Structure formats: structure tokens, C-alpha cells
Amino acid sequence: MPGEQMNEQQAAAYLHMDMREVAKLASRGQMPCRRVADGFVFRKRELDHWVEAQMHKLGRQRLADIEKGVSAHHGFDHGAMLIEPMIPPQGLAVPLKARTRKAVIRELVAVADRSELVYAPNDLVEEVLKREELCPTALAPDVALPHPRHPLPHDIAASFVSVGLTPSGVPYGSQDGTLTRLFFLVCCKDDRTHLHVLARLAQMLHDRRDIDRLLAVRSTEEMRSTLTTLEQAAIRAT
């Protein structure tokens, strides 16, 4: 539920954190919340956005813990494959022929559209661009996870991830000014799936050596195989 509210104990369980740490972050204004007489109240959607903004700073274990909490809250099987099944048969572009941020998004949407997953491609491109203008989704050097700010239950046929690898770097708003080559467009029909997908991807892309493996692939088949291997390793690690 997008408007779902949580107390400190529920927020701690959702993020798989110690309740004392949640209370400390809340009291310092470092976590979105509202103070009430007996503590703090948290909105789930605000917590999701907060985690999203912190992902590039979080360690692999913290990401794994968050995914555990989120999956338990929503009834997901934490040990099941998530990303690979969401990539449609034609959902990979190697190479992705784009040289600008808008062209990257347009091409990734077109990839999903060819799989008949998008009802209004132009509208989806605009929604993703709005999210990028609010805060770029470059996760690490060479990698970005573009997505709409909110789930799109009526604009897509099913939740999906489309993946593209450009031959050369694209200016995509990375905090350190580096260029980006590897893109994962994440579009979910419901609020409960969104953070789970981002946390799983962040785990898979946490190690620089794994990013380099993906940057070195030369075909869509090799990209899918490598992503499957990385996701299986992320599941085993937790």
C-alpha cells in the first residue's frame, strides 16, 4: 500500500535494521518520519525513496539485509530468482545505440515495447526523464538504474527490466562525473516490487569486478548468462 504507515518496530523490521538504529536516525532527522507522542511514524513510500537515495553508499550486507526485510514484508521468496525472469526474451540490447541520456531511455523503452510490455512508450519515456531530472539514477561508475518515480500499474502490461550496454560512455549524471555504459530500466506495476528489484540489482552490481564482467560481454546471450550467474551468487551470499 503506497500510503502505508509504520511505527519504529515495523520500520526496523521492514528495513531489517535494529530498532535502536532506526530511532537514532529518526531523532537526528536522517530518516524521513513524523514525530508523535510515543516515538516516530514512518511512511513506507518515503522509506523506499530514502533507501533508494542511499543505495550507492550502502555495503553489500546492508543491501542484503534490506532486501530480506522488504521481501518478508511483501511475501516474496528471498531465495528465488527475481531479475532474470523480469527480463523479457528481447529485453537486452548489446550494443545499445545511444549517445545521450534521453536516447538511452528511449531505446530501453523501445526494447520493452518490442516485447509488447508498454502501452504508451512516449509517456513512459517522459516519466523516466522526470525521475532523472529530480535525481540521476547513476548508481556507480559505468552503471545506472533508470526508473519512473512511482509504479505504473496502468502504463505497462507487466513489471519488467530491460538492459542495455552502450559501446562508449554516455553523460548520465554520475556524482563523480564519469560516463555510464550499463543501464537497467526498471518498471514495476506495483509499489511492493520496486524496492525489492533495486536492492537485488544493487547487490549484483556491488563488486567492481562484476561490473567489469558485464561491461566486457559481446552479445545478448552472454549478458543474460552473466546476469543469471551474478544473481545466483547474490542469493547464495545472503
Describe the structure.
It is built from ten helices and eight strands. With 238 residues, the protein is of the alpha/beta class. The chain has two domains: 5-57, Multidrug-efflux Transporter Regulator, Chain: A, Domain 2 (Orthogonal Bundle); 83-237, Mannitol-specific EII, Chain A. The strands form two sheets. A five-stranded mixed β-sheet has the order 4-7-8-6-5. A three-stranded antiparallel β-sheet has the order 1-3-2.
Key words describing this protein structure:
238 residues; Multidrug-efflux Transporter Regulator, Chain: A, Domain 2; Mannitol-specific EII, Chain A; 2 domains; five-stranded mixed beta sheet; 10 helices; 8 strands
Helix fraction by DSSP (H/I, runs of at least 4): 40-55%
What's the number of extended β-strand segments? Answer: 8
Shape: globular
Q: Tell me what portion of residues adopts beta-strand conformation.
A: 15-25%
Mean pLDDT: 90
CATH class of the largest domain: Alpha Beta
SSE layout and pairings?
Elements: E1 5-6, H1 8-15, H2 19-27, E2 34-36, E3 39-43, H3 44-54, H4 60-74, H5 83-86, E4 92-93, H6 101-114, H7 121-134, E5 138-140, E6 142-144, E7 160-170, E8 180-187, H8 191-204, H9 208-215, H10 220-237
Helix pairs in contact: 1-2, 3-8, 4-8, 6-7, 8-10
